[in-house]
Structure of ATP-binding protein:
Amino acid sequence: MLDLLTALTEAFTSFLFGKVETTRLPVRTSTGQAQAVYLPTAAPGLGDSGVIIGREVYSGKGYIYDPFQLYGQQLPAPHWLVLGESGNGKSALEKTYVLRQLRFRDRQVVVLDAQGEDGVGEWNLIAQQLGITPIRLDPMTAREGGIRLNPLDPSITTTGQLALLRTIIEVAMGRGLDERSGFALKVAHSYVNETILDRQPVLTDIVEQLRHPEAESAETMNVDIDDVRAWGLDVALVLDRLVDGDLRGMFDGPTSAGIDLDAPLIIFDLSHIDRNSIAMPILMAIVGVWLEHTWIRPDRKKRIFLVEEAWHIINSPFVAQLFQRLLKFGRRLGLSFVAVVHHLSDVVDGAAAREAAAILKMASTRTVYAQKADEARATGRVLGLPRWAVEIIPTLTPGIAVWDVNGNVQVVKHLVTEAERPLVYTDRAMTEDGEDGTARELAAAAAREAGPADGPRGSSEPTVA
């Protein structure tokens, strides 16, 4: 009776709703085929407005990033830190990111190009393509009509000039100015600005005043003129290096005419400066403050300040303090600071650990390319990366990086278009494995399609299908 009732029920159900699902025998298959049935869970992206970077490795979704679009909602600050050993794609990412940003009319970019070969910077090819002449700072040609930047340029406020002079001296001396030396510098700077009105004051004027201070300068503080001269002697000797030493010509005259601060891309070519000398942080300080007072303006433009070899900034307490102020100031005026560093240990264990921590804290976006396992663990601790991300960093292939955008952590494969490739990978780099490893990047370009074999599928923890 029960079987008859079941049969009638199934017949009536089939009449109303169609044939019921039949029982199927189990099928033996592979995980490659079954993944179409058991779909993985993918983390949400960053939106669909901004610059295309590439695609998220584990979901295949397009990865779009723009600090100006995300600022205030998903990002507390628009600043960005790029980490990784040479030859893993940092250079390609920087260049394509800038080229893609410049497609927006309200974007402007300054690049401090600290690398190069054959007498030109690494960004020279892009500059030629865009019809831009790099601002090449070279002490060898400065006296023969080369580019000059004046730390006493009238476009820089007197407060900014004095802060810049102090930073130059402190970087060169490796210590802070004492009160007496600081007073001598302040008096000399004030006197020069008050008395030289028919031209731009220059560093030579400051050095001369430090060596031969005016009597009234001493009288204002009721001290002896010989004391003021003695207090300023060390300061004069340091500044003399910019006037008559190995850095002469670049900063001891009026700012060169023809520097177009309205160009969409401004490149400071520092490739002729020894990257391991004290000259590099001094240059970084001068360029940074000069840009702060002449380039960043409340005109609603979105500006990007990209610095290669940025450890010269973060590893110097005095320069780091200047850039800290620049970063805080720039957020109100639409500035995104991009710092490119090989190893985080270069800065967090250096002389400016406290200042470095403050700058790293401002960088809400962190992109980490392949590093050795011990370096990856140290980076993960400092940046607070999830464990799965730290574990895969040593296994990443060139062009693939871990992106941490204010806690949204994903593995992203950077894609280079055919139009961009000639600008990113030069012929010289193909034949000579340069320091930035672009030859290795190009050789591995085809292999990048595969990506890592295993890893996370979400933004914070791996999801297993």
In short: Confidence is low (pLDDT under 50) at residues 427-465. Residues 51-147+260-449 form a domain with the Rossmann fold fold (CATH 3.40.50.300). The first strand starts at residue 51 and ends at 56.
